[in-house]
TrEMBL record:
Organism annotation: Oncorhynchus kisutch
Bias kind Pro residues: ranges: 505-557
Residues covered by the FH2 domain: 568-953
Ranges of biased composition (kind: Low complexity): 377-456
Keywords linked to the UniProt accession: Actin-binding
Polar residues bias (residue ranges): 363-376
Full protein name: Formin homology 2 domain containing 1
The keyword Oxidoreductase is annotated on this UniProt entry: no
Domain of life, per lineage: Eukaryota
BP-aspect Gene Ontology terms: cortical actin cytoskeleton organization
Amino acid sequence: KQGGTRKAMAIITCRVQYLEDSDPFVCTNFPEPRRPPPYDLDENIALIEQIAGVHKLLEAPLKLEECALQMAPNGNYLDLDLSLGEQKDDVEQLYDDVGRGKKPILILRTQLSVRVHSILEKLYNSHGPELRRSLFSLKQLFEDDKDLVPEFVNSEGLTCFIKVGTEADHNYQNYILRALSQIMLFVDGMNGVIDHNDTVQWLYTLSGSLSRLVVKTALKLLIVFVEYTELNSPLLIQAVNTLSVSTGVKPWSYLTEILEEKNGSDTELFILTMNLINKTLAALPDQDSFYDVTDCLEQQGMEHIMHKHMSSKVTEPDLKQQFTIYERALRHEDGEMDAAPHVRKERRKVTASEQEGRRIRRSSAQNLPDILSSSPTTSNTISLSASSSTSLSPSTSSPFSPSSSTLSPSTSSPFSPSSSTLSPSTSSPFSPSSSRSASPLTPTSSPSDSGSQRSSPLPPPEVANGTAIKDLDFSDLMEEEDIDVLDVDVFDVGVGRPSGGGGGIPPPPPPIPGLASAPPPPPPPPGAPFMSIPPPPPPPPGGGLCSPPPPPPPGAPPSSSSSSSQTPDPAFAKKRKTVKLFWKELKQSDSPRKCKFGRGTVWASLDKVTVDTAKLEHLFESKAKELPKAEILVLDSKRSNSINIGMTVLPAVHVIKTAILNFDEFAINKEGIEKILTMTPSEEEKQKIQEAQLANPDVPLGSAEQFLLTLSSISGLSARLQLWAFKLNYETLEKEIAEPLFDLKLGMEQLAKNKTFKRILATLLAIGNFLNSTSAKGFELNYLEKVTEVKDTVHRQSLLHHTCNFLVDNYTDTSDVYSEIPSITRSARVEFEQLSDSLVQLERKCKTSWDNLKVMSKHETKALLKNRLTEFLKDCTERIIILKVVHRRIINRFHSFLLYLGQPSYSVRDTKVTHFCKIISEFSLEYRTTRERVLTQKHKRATHRERTKTRGKMITEVGLGCRSGGRPRSGVRG
């Protein structure tokens, strides 16, 4: 009964409608049906798993993978990756309506990113009347949907305006300016223009147009831009200077040409031009910037222009007012007059690079008529802002040349130019000309002499001990590492290593009783270790893995480590029985041995962690096992078995989804992608699974069905997988033996120095000691494979989840581990037993990459994903003799590293490098995924709070204090 009550409370009944807006230009604003039907949503299930039921109920003519849920009437979009309960703080209005007995309305409509992509595709690929109609409709689109503006700006919509407007005539440019004016009315849109200096450059370029209407509109938008905040004035100057460098046109020449009446006389144009100049000068914080602008204007005849207009009897008073303000500003900065009503009260500050006494470059001031006292000053047409502390920053944006921009995408696409819908300004990451920024094999912590090695590529690199291969530095491998630590008997004393009588058999075969042979040349054969009890029986002949040491014979006292480990600590007294961790305790005693990584083992250097034993006792209370529940099985047995077999070689399904969305090649290798391609669900399978889930909502899906359902929730799945396969197969990678060896060397160093990894081990050890009621000094690291499988009995959260929460809450300086040990991850993919003859070349051509990118870009517009193609690694040669030395020393160092991690010496030889690195890599990947999930929830809530501050707000609603002190940046990326 209690379970049924909780389930009833978790159901929220809403009314649902759909809005057919797949084509934004023909969208209606009336959702269907007029009488919305009710639909029950589970508060604890992610919305992505429930949206299919809404889509089916409404029979909406929308693609399911492109749908989003929007709340009415406030228009907030729900996060489909979360459940309603997880975003309860962000949908307070929905819960308020439910609390008042109302049924809130949810609207099923096309995702914002898809609609924006459709707009950009239409603008890029349309011509003639169709393009004119589309441009004309944009202003109304932005007026009707306030959420469209920030998404359009963040999806490189401003770049699209520039590309289309540069090729179009003045009529099309005027339509674009109308739409841009609507964008700039919103705070999010204005912030997008501030971040996109190319738009400011383009607006300034249009001030030199032959169309007076275009010039007037461009000047008005620039005035609005400068008026919004004082920080925008330096951005306008930066845009003018950048354009001057790229085109060779004098700065501010477009404005002086207007004042010189080269394109005819128009008083309104003159007033707008002078207004823009005065507002720009008024906001400059330092004299250097002020004089840079005014000197440039004076060199182009500003004094003569002023004299001409001020002397004319037909000049309108408003224009004379603007010239008067300009002249007073000059004299005020020169110190020749006190502040006037429309001039800054204080002179601008002098920068460190400015010479004392700099004044305006005007040859003579006597020939200007005395107009300051006679000019009308009644119309207040300008408001000069207070001084700002931010000076003009140097230009950092790339030069923008309007003549170099083209509309056709064929200039950047090596494939199918007519079908590309991407911005032509964005070079394709799949272009053969793209290059990777840095080699993954470049050491990040190599010695200082590595730089000199790379600077002289002609002679072979040399180091002190001759262990260098091209630009890979192995100079810290010393001669003493020619001796394997496992062959030194000091490491074997008291460990209980199975051995025979002779002990002189060279590695790698296991020792055989009674067999003695010539010892290997170094080291000399060690003597048989002294033991207080008879040695254990030897392994069988031809053995593989060494058997663990047998228990001591009857009557023999137990070892100190064993007795201390099994004696329950008084601090671990428990009232309830808890879940046990089935790890292998380290029985070996501490020894004073020292290696490169430190003295003793890593466990001896760990700090003691105090955990909340009461909380752990509650979370991990041992309860009776639940009976296996029924599962929904839809697929035929052959298909289901194939998927289940494939899943055994793949990471967890949530890791797969994150990896596919982020194109994380470290998470899934090429074989994994090819395996997933064969397991991609068909439309029929997806429909059957969804129907079965709707028919039996309380019954969980089978593993294969759940796997396919998760894959189907990924937008553009087939395109993403094919594009990823192309990315991994495009380059020809020549793997040299030295590369994985160098990765292993770096990986051991990275892992040994990683503080977060040590804190994870310490936390797991503290939790496990409490749950097991023991005082173990450490555990074998292969237990890290099982950390995600242990779950608490209350919330069913994994032990890794609780460990991650503990570290995030108590150690703010921790990292995700995974990003700090890339060498370990790369080493996990290498078969070190076959390095001697490992030369693999992979090459494949892809003819449909641009089509796949086009489909993927509908849902994902991250620029980083488009630029992750790496180029080929070529000409990696090696010296055979050095490689043998490096290989021997690296493997011996790996054995020493395992001993440092507490691995028993008798099992070190049987531990595979790849298997060990895979354990560490997969655990760190799981930890990173869990940590990102925890941090993402915190970030989403913070971003939503910031986004709501500017959502739908107009620039006229922003307070003056905020506009004068700096632009409101919140919500720009929301």
